[in-house]
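Hi, here's the filled form for the chain we discussed.

Project: internal
Contact: R.S.
Residues: 764
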Amino acid sequence: MIKSFSIYTFFISASLFITAKAQVVEQIDWSSFMAQHDLIWEETPLQWNEGAFTGNGQVGMMIYANMEDNRFDFHIGRQDVTDHKKAPNKKSSMGVKGADLYDFSRLDIGRMVLRPAGQIQSVSMRQDLWNAEVRGTVFTSLGEISFKAFTPYDRMLNIVEITSTERQNGKKVDYKWEWIPGNPISPRVITKLTPKLKDSYKVNPKPIIRELSGISICEQSLLAGGDYATAWSEDSLGGKAIMYIAIANEIPATGVSTKVALQTINDARSISNKELITTHRNWWHKYYKKSFITMPDKRMESFYWIQIYKMATCSRADGPALDLMGPFFKNTSWPGLWWNLNVQLTYWPFNTSNHLDIAENFIKLIDNHFKYMVEHKSGENLGDFAWATHNYWLIFKYKGDDEAIQKKWVPKAIEILKKYETKMIRNVDGKIELTPMGSPEYHGFKAFPNTNYNLAILRWLLNALIESNEKFNQHAEDIVKWKQILEDLIDYPIDENGLMIGSNQPVDMSHRHYSHLLALYPLFQLNPDSPEDLELVDKSVVHWHKIEEGSKLVGYSYTGAASLYAALGRGNEANELLQDFLDGNIGTALLLANTFYMEGNGRNPVIETPLSTAASILELQLQSWGGKIRVFPAMPESWENAAFKDLRAQGGFLVSAVRDNGETKWVSIKSLSGKPCTLKLLDWENAIQISKGKKINITKNNEGEFRIDLKKGESISISSGKINEKVQISPIKHPENSLNYYGVKKGMNLKEIMEYYVPLYGLD
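And the returned structure, exactly as it came back:
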């Protein structure tokens, strides 16, 4: 870090001064800024764990070499390709009684393989974030094959452009394409195969490869009915070739996927390649510009922006909810979606980064599966699904959409509360206790009375129900009842080390999950602004991480602790934990050079941890809970400069700010919904409006707290005093030799291929 740097040193002069609308002026060369975060491969990626990736939220591909077979793989994935044996009339059997992950598991579509004429010697690649494409060169004994690969956002296909200079005896020689179908069985069967399972599991039919109208087709039918199809075709275009790979999934229909895949290719061919690329890039450029953040830690900044890229490669409004691997299929023990932490963490960064639009699939997930989940997941693991509905509620909070909370969330919350009421008992003192329930992963699935996990979720549920229904003057009698439950509810079980697992279970061993700490983060039922609560949660977090020297901690234990410390305002500790994570000091888990995260000896991708890291990074600079917008609430002491633009806060606010030489210079806020706005700034004694136009009323509530009376659509820029600088945002510059941290660097290939053995077809 260059401590003497002032963020204003790099502002490009402009004639645009503070405007009546308090507009924040960007001084960002987006192409150059994003380029410094591109992943660059100096070594050949030898497996999925080292690959480059492209996607559009539904389909995508992981790109890497197989040196033993002298091929270069474009491993294709589509998120909604799952089995559905227990639901022949649906695309997936998830949420169907009797179905399990062996039944609605993700399925491997296959890989498009480039086979050079010569022997592969090395590969270099660059993952261009700004344009959402991967460019590279395969160096062979006979020349070079250059490629550009991307997944158009508006089309369900992948595109690979090829230029080859391979020659033998002075004559051009051709590479070949080959389709290797995926094995159409649940990866969970492969990873957990027993003789009994082998005898009982019914294998789907072999795929059929044929040609129609000059286009190759791989049709994969399923025992439950229906089929999915992959179509591919290569065109020549001015000295280069273009391979189109379309993936269609019209299950439960039969014989339709092939038609859709063919049409997808023909539609792409019907327009110019330039138009395809331009449309694709325009979507991504608009996506990135929805918010901006820069920080003095170059590695952390790169990691953050790669996750913003990853979010849109893995999630789209009209696609399925994001599971543990997105469209980047890998054989894994966990080929689906998990409820006890994973799906919750996955969706946190979508909120503050201002990308709620591509998180709409989570709203649909809860809406579509609520009835089944509340009926069949309401036993000892009730808390898992109840916690997931906090994400549902949170999305509407960030939108500032109180009406949606009342209309869509409140009925669901009431049904969940009814299930919790069946777990309530009165003790001899008349206090309400909870019967034994799970606290995720502590002693496996063992149940404990009065788990802090469920007490925290229940308190949030009751408080949020009361808040919404009082606002809309609904359920008056229930509000009285809910308040009484809160009054009578047993306190959180604590001991000398802080929050316990349950009333009969201390935190007496290293434990990777922070389920017992949800009352602080993300539920904020314990208030770190309260000295008493602050002491309790601080002690609890310290104990959780130090017991048995953290021997069982994994990646999300570090990112979760970083968020917990950030909530406490302890930026130094949060930063230290994030550095541990980025260094890869995360126990048995692995953080990879392509920023994916693995557990299970490097074989099981778990996408939520890198994404939740982006949320933890955001929380150093902006938090919004308890009805207050907190700007730079947890800045590490070493971070003298930072800036962000149009990050989203709860209540429907877009917030921008600049920190220079350890001081908050200015803050700009736009109200999207007209909600009350309270701004908390630890380093301000006063707040005055510096934007011109309508005078906005600012009231000082407490030290460092200011109420700003913004109406819907209004904006304001404020400072602690009069300033001469323009309200501008510009990136922090980093030394040239510190850029492009990610990608496989020289001599840094993994030492082993981390894959499960998978037969080409079936279980033999």
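Let me know if anything looks off before we file it.
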